[in-house]
Each structure stands twice: as C-alpha cells, then as structure tokens.
C-alpha cells in the first residue's frame, strides 16, 4: 500500500485516477453535480408541466341528443337529466343534435378548476353561414338579416325607412341561387323565433299580391297581416327564403 495522506490509504492502481479527479477545477465538479440534479428532477418537472387542466360542466337539455364538445363525442344527453362532465379547460364549442337534426349549441370559455352549469335549448334553426339559417322543421333556408341596408332616397333627399314591394322582389332575386320573397304562411312560421335572426324591423313583405296595386305583409311579433301599396317605402322590410 502507498501512503497518500496521513489518514487516507489507496491501492496504487486507483491513485492516478484519484489525483486526476482532485485536480479538476471546482467548476467542473459543480457542473457534474448540476447535471446529476437535473437528471433527477427533470422527470418530475416534465410530469408536472404536462398535467392537463380540467374544468367541469353540468349539462342539461330539453331533448334527447348526441353531445359533441370541440368536435369530440361525449355520448348523449337525456331530456331534463343533468349530466356532469370533465373537460379540458379553454374555449369550448358545444353542440347537442337530436335524431330529428334539431340542434342546441353554446360557446363558452372555462379556466382550470371552473364549475359551470349550462342549459342547452334546441332551436329549429341551424346556422349554415353567418348570413343563412335553415329551418329544420321544413328545410327552408332564410337570410338571417333583412333589407335594413337597402338604400332608397326619397325626392326630399331623405333615406326611406323601408323598402317597396317591387324593390323587395328584385333585392331577393338578385341574390341568385333561388332566393325569393316568402309567402304569408312561410313568414308566419317565423313568429316568436326572431332571436335566431338579425332583423331590424317587424313588418315583412310577402310574395302575395292583393289586386293590382297592393301586396300582403306580415308582422313577426304576432303574425298579424295586412296590405300596403306596392310602391310604399314606409316600414316594411324584406327577408328572403329559398327551397332546399
């Protein structure tokens, strides 16, 4: 045995390696220690960072329907039965669709740990685009907005409030694709469902004439109908419809 220090004795075969280790700069020892610590701590840190953040929803609806959240299927909901669901936090697009193609939709944003109760109500109208909705009861497609942006300037230089029947017919026809003025019965089907539309007025022209100088219009608040002159620009507006 070779004496290395007054209190430490090492076999001669280990002496060169030991001296080399002790000769290393202190920074090297610290680096080795840091690497060892990072190797020990990295799995736990990664596990903590990758842990998903969940929120909870309590959903109910007024119909039996199949539920999707952000296009992922979440089974079904039963009429007036509350179901609790764990979801990933964030922006959620929720839809529940019945076998009759009635759809209840909602958009919400949830943070991690949020608890939210939501009642989904089915609507007859599904939105095809920002400007077109379809009535699931009969397949008719409607423009979501009326003729509010139609501009007719009176001889006084003042913009008219409404649209004449002649202009309403042309306004719908010029959209192409089979758009037209609706009948009185078709307009009557929109009573009490104005929340699905973006209408600026209540009175809407129909495509039905009353003699040679008048046409019928319908009030969407209560379904009342009456006639007005074809060239009147008073308060009547136009909404367009087309068959599927």
Decide which structural class fits the backbone: alpha+beta
Distance between the termini: 100 Å
Strand order of the largest sheet: 5-4-7-8
**SSE succession:** EEHHEEEEEEEEEEHHEEEE
Tally of individual helices:
4
What gross morphology would you assign? elongated
Give the helix level as a range of percent.
10-25%
Extract low-pLDDT stretches: 1-15, 25-43
In percent terms, what proportion of residues is strand? 25-35%
Please state the CA-atom Rg, rounded to the nearest Å: 36 Å
Give the biggest sheet. 4 strands, antiparallel
Q: Please count the beta strands (DSSP E, at least 2 residues each).
A: 16
Arithmetic mean of pLDDT: 81
């Amino acid at each position: 045995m070779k004496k290395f220090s007054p209190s430490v004795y090492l076999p001669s075969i280990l002496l060169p390696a030991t001296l080399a280790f002790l000769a290393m700069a202190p920074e090297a020892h610290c680096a080795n220690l840091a690497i060892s610590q990072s190797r020990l701590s990295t799995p736990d840190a990664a596990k903590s960072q990758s842990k998903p953040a969940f929120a909870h929803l309590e959903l109910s609806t007024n119909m039996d329907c199949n539920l999707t959240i952000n296009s992922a299927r979440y089974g079904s909901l039963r009429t007036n039965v509350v179901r609790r669901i764990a979801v990933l936090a964030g922006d959620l697009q929720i839809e529940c669709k019945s076998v009759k193609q009635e759809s209840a939709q909602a958009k919400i944003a949830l943070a991690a740990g949020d608890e939210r109760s939501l009642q989904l109500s089915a609507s007859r109208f599904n939105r095809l685009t920002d400007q077109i909705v379809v009535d699931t009861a009969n397949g008719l497609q409607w423009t979501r907005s009326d003729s509010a942006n139609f501009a007719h300037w009176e001889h006084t230089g003042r913009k008219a409030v409404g649209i004449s029947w002649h202009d309403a017919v042309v306004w719908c026809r010029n959209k192409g694709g089979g758009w037209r003025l609706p009948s009185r019965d078709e307009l009557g089907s929109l009573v009490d469902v104005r929340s699905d539309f973006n209408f600026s007025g209540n009175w809407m022209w129909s495509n039905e004439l009353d003699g040679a100088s008048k046409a019928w219009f319908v009030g969407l608040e209560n379904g009342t109908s009456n006639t007005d002159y074809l060239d009147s620009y008073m308060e009547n507006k136009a909404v367009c419809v087309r068959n599927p």
